[in-house]
Structures are given as structure tokens and as C-alpha cells.
Amino acid sequence: MPGIYILGIESSCDETAAAVVRSGEQLISNVVASQIATHQPYGGVVPELASREHLRAIVPVVRQALSEANQTYKSVDAIAVTRGPGLAGALLVGISYAKALSYALDKPLIAVNHLEGHIHAVLLEERQKGNHDLQFPVLALVVSGGHTHLYLAQRRGNLWTYENIGHTRDDAAGEAFDKVAKLLGLGYPGGPVIDRLAPHGDPHAVKFLPAQIKHRDRRDHRKEREHSGKEKEKLGQDLAKDKTYDKDKEELQARRADSDRPHFDFSFSGIKTAVLRYVEVHSLRDSIERRRRALTAIPKPTLEDYLANCDRQALDLIASFQRAVVEDLIGKTLVAARAYEAATLFVTGGVAANSELRSTFEQAGAQEGIPVFFPSRSLSTDNAAMIAAAAYPKFLANDFAAMDFSAEANLVLR
Ligand code: KG4
Ligand code: ZN
What we know:
Elements: E1 5-10, E2 15-22, E3 26-34, H1 36-39, H2 47-68, E4 78-84, H3 88-105, E5 109-113, H4 114-128, E6 138-143, E7 148-156, E8 159-167, H5 173-183, H6 190-197, H7 216-219, H8 221-241, H9 246-258, H10 269-281, H11 285-296, H12 303-308, H13 312-339, E9 344-348, H14 355-368, E10 372-373, H15 377-380, H16 385-396
Parallel strand pairs: 1-4, 4-5, 6-9, 9-10
Antiparallel strand pairs: 1-2, 2-3, 6-7, 7-8
């Protein structure tokens, strides 16, 4: 079939992934090699082990993605790779391999921001369903193990621009799921397990106070104003100094305008501490330890195994925790959507796979009269199809990467 075939490569965290996507709208192959088994004993991702596993997996994963797509190294039109954010050592494995392929095959190389990839996973999903009609501005909630961000997205020609209008001040939402699951002896990663157990508990049993999901932006207005006053002053000085580069000047002006706009920040470390306090006050340590040992002894625990090892109190705590996080994510996103008059909502990233988040967001969006789009569950968590999809507009705009670019662990999305 005619079109532009882009090979995407993703290695920013604990998944080695490769995919082929046609013209940003048709997923041809999507291979993900998960490292969960490697990191499980440690209850979280160990960066050195992640790099080693990527090195082991990258070549076979790319080969599989090409062969499942009936493509070859020579037949694809471009190679796209995640530049950041992520673990530097892990990113470098994908980048080095993508550069080697691009150089040896004489194919264009496209560097993609991982967060833009998550946003384009939604677009890929919608285009596959034949939905090409999207209203802007789009407000995208990117919610994963490493990130909780709100981006206001606009399209200029083929390219997209993003304004960050909120982010987590401490833990990402997925990190809170993982830490709470670990604390309750449920293993790693926590999100999928909590998702499956929550419907078996009472979400109203444990009350988490609003202060436990802090709203620092609202609590600390005076400090924020002082901070933004100083920032504006500094931007003013930067602007006055900068007479040469119009593009930089434009960016500084945009930053100055941004600092006046409302922000909707998140915080999830308080709820994790509240769960810990609940465990202490209700003396749950021994039962948690028994659960942890029992589940560790089962190679692949099923839902029945988890349920057999969770009493009512644990299930109620799990359901209440999930409900509190879901309500906070949705509540803040909707307030931001109203403030910025968003026409469309995207919810993406690993936590977007959560069943309660999806169904509650859909209801809330319908009430609010704003369409809400998610990727399928397999495109919500890390994958390379989203990288190949995000690369397509860059391909059309000839926005190619030079051979000397490197991994950027803290790459910002603009
Ligand atoms: O997007 P992702 O695969 O990697 C990052 O970019 O971080 O997200 C992984 C995160 C983990 O924290 C995992 O626990 C969470 O997404 N997650 C979920 C679910 N599936 C994955 N959280 C809640 N419910 C789920 N069903
Ligand atoms: Zn991710």
C-alpha cells in the first residue's frame, strides 16, 4: 500500500519497542519487549539493568517489527527514535542503534519527544478508526509512571506545538500506584493490579482528605506570585539583552506570556503517605508481609490469587486510593479545560490504561460536552508505534535530526 513507512524505536524506560506505522495513521506492526521480570524483584526500574536489557533486545525487537510488517531495513522511508525524557543510558541504546541504521541505510532520522509520542498515540488510535476531524485546542493529560503533565496542544501546519499548563510537583500518578502497590505487598508494577482489585472494594470506605492530594498552586498563591514576578523580571532583562535572535526572542516572549497563565499542578506524594499512615494506624504490617510472601511464591498470580490474599480492609483501601487519584486527575483536567476553553481532551500514558479513569473520564466528558479520547490499552503504555506516529508530521516538515544529537533525560516538550 502506498504511503510513508516509518520505523519507530523506543527505549526510554523499561520497554524495548519497535514498530512500523504507515503515514501516521495505520499501525502495521508493534513489538514491545517488557523488562518487568528483570525489575520485579527490586520493586522498581533499575537503570543499569534497563540499559543492559535494551542492549540485549534491541536488534531482535527491530527485526521482528520489520518482519511482522513485511518490511525490510531498505524498504522503510525513515527511522524515528525517542530522544527523551527518560533514563539516559536506556535512551542511548535506542538512539545509537537508530543512528547506525540511518547512517548505514542512508535514511532520514527523526528524533521524537517521548511525551509527544504519548499524545500521538491518541491520534493514531483515532485515525485508525477513521476519525480525522479534530477540534483544537486539544488538552492532553499525559499520565504515566514518570510523568503527570497537562499540555495545551495547537497545530500549525503539519507541526504541533505544546504549552505545559500543569505538572506534578512530586510523584507521578503511576509512581503513586506503584509505590502504594509495593507498600501493600502487591508487587510491581502496581497500576494494573490495583486496577483489577479496586472494583472488589468500597471506594468510599477510606476518606482521603483533599489536603492529602495537595493543590500547591492554590494553597501557595503569594509565593507563586512572587516567583512569577521575579521570573517575569528576569525574562524582561533577557529580552532587553537579546537583540539578535528573533526566534529566541519569540520564545522568551511566549514564556513571559505563559508565566501569566493559570497552572494546574498535581501532587501525589501526600496520598502515598496517607496510605502508609493508614497501614500503621490499623496495624496492617503483618498481613501485608504474609500477602507479599504468598504472592512472591506464585510465578504469575491471577486475579483469584490476589483476591485470595486480600481481605476486605485491603480491598477497601485499594478502591479508595484509586478513586481519590482518579477524581483528582479528572477534576483538575476539567477545571483546566474550562479555563483554556479546550475543544478536545486526550488522556494518555500508562495510567490511561486504568478502567476507572477511562469510564469516569468518559462520563465526565459527556456531562461537560467535551469529547475525550484515549489510546487503546496497548498504545497507552510505552510503545514505539506512538514514536513512529509522532514522527510523521516531522517527516512531512523535513524536520530531521542531525547525526550528533544525544539523549536528553529531561527533554522538555514545547
Ligand atoms: O507510559 P508507561 O508505560 O511508562 C512511562 O512512561 O512511565 O507507564 C507505566 C506506568 C506504571 O506506573 C504503571 O503502574 C502504570 O503506568 N499503569 C497503570 C495501569 N497500567 C499501567 N496505572 C493504573 N492502571 C493501569 N491499568
Ligand atoms: Zn511513557
